[in-house]
Amino acid sequence: MKRPFFATVWREGDWFVSQCLEIDLASQGETEEEALANLREALELHFEPPVATHAPTVRLIEVEVGAA
After folding, report:
1. Does the reported pTM lie above 0.70?
2. Residue 29 and residue 59: Cα distance in Å, rounded?
3. Which residues of the chain are under the pLDDT cut of 70?
4. What is the pLDDT of residue 50?
5. Can you give the residue ranges of every domain in the chain?
6. Residue 17: helix, strand or coil by DSSP?
């Protein structure tokens, strides 16, 4: 299944940076085309289902919230 995403591309020094606007994901390349190709690959990997090599361990952590 293909799904379209909007991306921006800009130059930072010697590199082109591409960023997906719908998902917080970015990549880079030496050309605009390479930056977009790398972003496309990163998006494909982002949506691949995770495959654990070891069973995950569930842990409880406590965090102080609302402390002034």
Report:
1. yes
2. 38
3. 67-68
4. 80
5. 7-46
6. strand
